[in-house]
TrEMBL record:
Keyword rRNA-binding in record: no
SUPFAM superfamilies, per database record: Nicotinate mononucleotide:5,6-dimethylbenzimidazole phosphoribosyltransferase (CobT) (SSF52733)
Entry GO MF terms: nicotinate-nucleotide-dimethylbenzimidazole phosphoribosyltransferase activity
Keywords per UniProt: Cobalamin biosynthesis, Glycosyltransferase, Transferase
Role played: Catalyzes the synthesis of alpha-ribazole-5'-phosphate from nicotinate mononucleotide (NAMN) and 5,6-dimethylbenzimidazole (DMB).
Name of encoding gene: cobT
Pfam families linked to this entry: DBI_PRT (PF02277)
Pathway note: Nucleoside biosynthesis; alpha-ribazole biosynthesis; alpha-ribazole from 5,6-dimethylbenzimidazole: step 1/2
Sequence similarity: Belongs to the CobT family.
The protein's name: Nicotinate-nucleotide--dimethylbenzimidazole phosphoribosyltransferase
Species for this entry: Actinospica durhamensis
Single biological process term from Gene Ontology: cobalamin biosynthetic process
Catalyses which reaction(s): 5,6-dimethylbenzimidazole + nicotinate beta-D-ribonucleotide = alpha-ribazole 5'-phosphate + nicotinate + H(+)
Keyword Disulfide bond: no
Length: 370
């Protein structure tokens, strides 16, 4: 556009996000009804297969392989308010652990054959050129959201764009499924504030026990979330403003990662409460981005269920996990792959010569009606 404003990466990405291709989704629904199984018997896996068909615009959709997990790491100024028992240094120490292959998520990723990519978007330590680390630091951790905005709008956009670029690079490397991960001591407090801002739920409803705190610290954590919401009076119509007020740099990068995956029409399997908060940011920026999201699991953090409800997506597993790192997303990957494989490989009643009585089958919803 000669003489015009250059289009930012964020704007170009938002422009590219579209909803599901209804024709491909309908073809998947039709095929599911003709496969050699009672209609509906694969439950949520049928829904996932239809979603991925609609996302790719193909029926059947490609297998979600290979898959890559991005662990976005950052620190939080609100740590100074005593909302977590863990010292802030644990964020940087866990980054080293991920890079050495020693964290839980490394073991789980090995189990399912996913690549692990660790991105520093805001760790409050100089990590140097640690082998394997993607250095995208926007600042040395956020500021304390109870004292002022956690970051500037420009920093929020820079971190979103780091997430978009991570998605773009992983897809350019051949990955066909993206998994979200996070590491950031105190980030369940930031997640609670973000979820309250977007859903209107109260601080007590969205705040959880994070890595593990006593009742007194829990009451204090709720009060910190309440104070931050009162200070910033967030406007959910201004998602970058909400991010700047409360967000972690990892929340911003995760929102960008979701937008980037959605723009490239690659499924993004979400982990726990941090990813749920980030997906609300992405949805407020580009409503159709949620069409690319699969909720890997439901975390024990109460705000996560509220975020998933607001997103309108259902978790594939509930193992009472509350680890983060991408652990729940990675564990859900084989279910997403199984959903697609069934659609690709299972015979139809016609092709297998199996008698089809599906026309006289009564689905649970129909049964309820009678
Ligand atoms: O994914 C979740 O739902 C989740 C729930 C509780 C804790 N975490 C992880 O624990 C850290 C934040 O916990 P906290 O108590 O310091 O706010 C951060 O590194 C998260 O990845 C993650
Ligand atoms: C040890 C530890 C590992 C983690 N992984 C994700 N969040 C974490 C928080 C702590 C404290």
């Amino acid at each position: 556009m000669p003489g015009g404003e250059p289009v930012s990466l964020l704007d170009a990405t938002v422009d590219a996000v579209r909803g599901l291709d209804e024709e491909a989704a309908a073809a998947a629904r039709d095929r599911q009804s003709r496969m050699t199984k009672p209609p509906g018997s694969l439950g949520m896996l049928e829904t996932v297969s239809e979603q991925l068909a609609g996302l790719s615009g193909q029926c059947p959709p490609p297998m979600p392989e290979p898959a890559a997990l991005a662990v976005f790491a950052a620190d939080h100024g609100v740590h100074a308010q005593g909302v977590t028992p863990w010292p802030q240094e644990v964020t940087a120490q866990m980054v080293s652990n991920f890079l050495a292959g020693g964290a839980v998520v490394n073991a789980f990723a090995k189990q399912v054959g996913a690549e692990v990519c660790v991105v520093d978007v805001g760790v409050a330590a100089h990590l140097g050129d640690a082998a394997g680390l993607v250095p995208r630091k926007v600042r040395m951790g956020t500021a304390d959201m109870t004292q002022g905005p956690a970051m500037s709008r420009e920093e929020a956009v820079a971190a979103i764009e780091a997430g978009i670029e991570t998605a773009r690079d992983l897809v350019a490397a051949g990955n066909r499924c993206l998994l979200t991960g996070d590491m950031g001591i105190a980030n369940t407090t930031a997640s609670a504030a973000l979820i309250a801002a977007f859903t209107g739920a109260s601080p007590a409803q969205v705040t959880g026990y994070g890595t593990g705190i006593d009742e007194q610290t829990y009451a204090h954590k709720v009060e910190i979330v309440r104070r931050a919401l009162q200070l910033h009076r967030p406007d959910p119509q201004d998602p970058v403003g909400v991010l700047a007020a409360f967000g972690g740099l990892e929340h911003a990068a995760l929102a960008g990662f979701i937008l980037g995956g959605a723009a490239l029409r690659v499924p993004v399997v979400l982990d726990g409460v941090i990813a749920g908060a980030a997906a609300l940011v992405a949805q407020a920026i580009a409503p159709e981005s949620t069409a690319a999201c699969v909720a890997g699991h439901r975390s024990a953090e109460p705000g996560h269920a509220l975020a998933l409800e607001a997103l309108g997506i259902h978790p594939l597993i509930d193992l009472e996990l509350r680890l983060g790192e991408g652990s729940g997303a990675v564990l859900a990957l084989p279910l997403v792959a199984a959903a697609v494989r069934a659609l690709r490989e299972v015979a139809t009643f016609d092709s297998a010569g199996v008698a089809d009585a599906s026309a006289s089958v009564v689905s649970p919803t129909e049964r309820e009606r009678h």
